[in-house]
Amino acid sequence: MKIRSPISVPNQCFSPLFPKMKIHMRNQTFLLLLFLLIVITTSINRTSAQNTTAYVPAEKIFLNCGASKENQPSQDGLSWEGDVGSGYAPGIQKTVSATPSDQASGVPTVPYMTARIFQTPYTYSFPDIPGRKFVRLHFYPSDYTDPDFMASNSYFSASVGSYTLLNNFSALLTAQALNHDYISKEFSVDISSRVLNLTFTPSPSNKNAFAFVNGIEIVSMPQIFRNFNNFSKIPLIGSTNDMSANQLIALGTTDKTAFETVARLNVGGQTVSANNDSGLYREWDDDSIYINGGVTYPKDPNVTIKYSDTVPEYIAPPVVYGTARSMGPQALANLNYNLAWIVPVDTGFYYLVRLHFCEIAYPITQINMRVFDIFINNQTAKEGFDVIAYPNRGGIGVPIYLDFILSFPNMSMSSQQDLWVALQPDMASKPMYYDAELNGLEIFKLNDSTGSLAGPNPSMKLTVNQGKQKKHNRHFLAIEIGVPAAVLFILLLVMALKRLRQEKTIVQSCVSSLPSSSNQGRLFSISDIKTATRDFSDSLVIGVGGFGKVYRGGIDGGSTCVAVKRGNRLSGQGAHEFQTEIDMLSKLRHRHLVSLVGYCNENDEMILIYDYMANGTLRDHLYKTQNPPLSWKQRLEICIGAARGFHYLHTGAKPSIIHRDIKTTNILLDDKWVAKVSDFGLSKSAPDLDCTHVSTAVKGSFGYLDPEYYRKQRLTEKSDVYSFGVVLFEVLCGRPALDRSLPDE
């Protein structure tokens, strides 16, 4: 094909640049093509730069309520103007400008050290360009002076046009539940008129009620909810069909839908301040409070974030796509747990869940290298998701996002439930790496059919102050009162052999029986256990021991992964070990002891539920395994951790405990390789100061037994020390404690 240049360039045009070079036609053609290449490259770079340019809002108002008109900078660099004389507060003389009675440590001066107080309905009016806006309200629930206004009396509503943002809202109760000193609420509303009216109304149910606000932000925004504007189909979790345009309209969910930001997380990274957002002044919170697991990592320095027209920079800033959280390098461990985030939400609403993805590190550069499934509230949201292979967008450094809608019907006694998002490697795709990753997570509440976004205040039982944490959170997070997000791996297989006769135990008179705890953990029904284990599905069996089978299960709607140990009814010692382990673990709490979640003894079942340990047993990583070998540093840290657990049993527990079955399969490893001592079915209370030992029938595992204990049947703490010494040699040499292939000695 003959390519014709649209520009006729004579030879002499280049001669000043090359005075000593004769320009031939071939050279001229080469230089012309070079020139065109430079022009095209520059154009592409310019287009790329435009795609990565932060959004510039047409309006941005930062109103410091109760303050004079002079602009004041906040600690994040934003310039706030006082509402006095601003033109946004008509008839402001009917309201009260007040200051808080104190300033808690860490509370910014601007905008929280002044407030506008309303004893009757009051409306701020903002001249506006029609379109979608962020409306952010800032509250510092303190007692206010001049005159006195007690925070406990503040109950009010807030509305924008026909949308109810807050109803009978107590900033004090909300802040106490979150354990924060100050809070912010963020909303997104579409304004069709040329004025935005924001109205505060004290609750009429309390004659002393008043409304207040410390700061107001009005920021115009692009249509980040593009799917709603185009009525594109959005997956509806729990339904076999996508949410169609007609369904959206029926829900009142259209391009006029109002949203409240419930959570906005920079997954794997630190909090991103409003001034470091891509022009929309959003704050992205650190996700660590929502999850306890996985590994975090930053963008490879050789990878560039490549925005597009489909995903422009205002969707999420580069700092969000530049960090991630994945499951970790242990493939076998990754297949046995979910990477899950848990966020409490109000019932009675639909929610939009937005997941941000971007492959930012080598070697994940090709299709089918990392493929995973996405679950939302124990429902499959997407199977076999591959970021690199995403249609027309994928590739390393290319950000993408997925939207899902789900409903939380108001069908329970609780006004809040946990929304959880979980990722798990997709085994069906047989990817190169069994792993999953996430860069960002946003959760938005959608207004109901009446145009309301208002949820109830937290109940008083949730407002216990659990410390003096001063961290500010713009969104409705209550993870301190939620369940731990950490999902951990395997409980050890109990080595209780089936016996033909009952155990004969001789205990000295100075030894009392194990005390029964009044707080023995959570009691599960057999139906709960069957749901958690899919009716004891063999596909979920992760171990078999003398006590019975161990299953991997999920409780609390699948949000918490646990190990479920089901007792064998034919085991002669089962009932005794079952009660012993419950009694022991219900009164023991230590970083290096496995935690008992609960139990079930319904229908003659003997079932124990534990935390799920992500990296299995210590034995799984020493020999006869396909797992990569532990480093010497890891071995040392694991042994030190286990030693601390045993030391606590001997010296910290009251009365002290002798474990009696110390071995490498009874030392479990969580997702951070922290050692956890497990299996207390054979444990005994240690002798008190007046006794030197416990006389008892010998229990334990061959190869680890203390010879003196075996010969004399006298149990002391030294018996545990001997067994742990065998464990240390096993870790050092990478060989089993007992080699049955050798001749008997």
From TrEMBL:
<keyword id="KW-1133">Transmembrane helix</keyword>
<keyword id="KW-0472">Membrane</keyword>
<keyword id="KW-0067">ATP-binding</keyword>
<feature type="binding site">
    <location>
        <position position="565"/>
    </location>
    <ligand>
        <name>ATP</name>
    </ligand>
</feature>
<keyword id="KW-0808">Transferase</keyword>
<feature type="domain" description="Protein kinase">
    <location>
        <begin position="536"/>
        <end position="745"/>
    </location>
</feature>
<dbReference type="InterPro" id="IPR000719">
    <property type="entry name" value="Prot_kinase_dom"/>
</dbReference>
<protein>
    <submittedName>
        <fullName>Receptor-like protein kinase FERONIA</fullName>
    </submittedName>
</protein>
<keyword id="KW-0675">Receptor</keyword>
<dbReference type="InterPro" id="IPR001245">
    <property type="entry name" value="Ser-Thr/Tyr_kinase_cat_dom"/>
</dbReference>
<dbReference type="InterPro" id="IPR008271">
    <property type="entry name" value="Ser/Thr_kinase_AS"/>
</dbReference>
<keyword id="KW-0812">Transmembrane</keyword>
<keyword id="KW-0723">Serine/threonine-protein kinase</keyword>
<dbReference type="GO" id="GO:0016020">
    <property type="term" value="C:membrane"/>
</dbReference>
<dbReference type="InterPro" id="IPR017441">
    <property type="entry name" value="Protein_kinase_ATP_BS"/>
</dbReference>
<dbReference type="GO" id="GO:0004714">
    <property type="term" value="F:transmembrane receptor protein tyrosine kinase activity"/>
</dbReference>
<keyword id="KW-0418">Kinase</keyword>
<dbReference type="InterPro" id="IPR024788">
    <property type="entry name" value="Malectin-like_Carb-bd_dom"/>
</dbReference>
<dbReference type="InterPro" id="IPR011009">
    <property type="entry name" value="Kinase-like_dom_sf"/>
</dbReference>
<feature type="transmembrane region" description="Helical">
    <location>
        <begin position="476"/>
        <end position="497"/>
    </location>
</feature>
<dbReference type="Pfam" id="PF07714">
    <property type="entry name" value="PK_Tyr_Ser-Thr"/>
</dbReference>
<dbReference type="Pfam" id="PF12819">
    <property type="entry name" value="Malectin_like"/>
</dbReference>
<dbReference type="GO" id="GO:0005524">
    <property type="term" value="F:ATP binding"/>
</dbReference>
<dbReference type="InterPro" id="IPR045272">
    <property type="entry name" value="ANXUR1/2-like"/>
</dbReference>
<keyword id="KW-0325">Glycoprotein</keyword>
<keyword id="KW-0732">Signal</keyword>
<keyword id="KW-0547">Nucleotide-binding</keyword>
<dbReference type="GO" id="GO:0004674">
    <property type="term" value="F:protein serine/threonine kinase activity"/>
</dbReference>
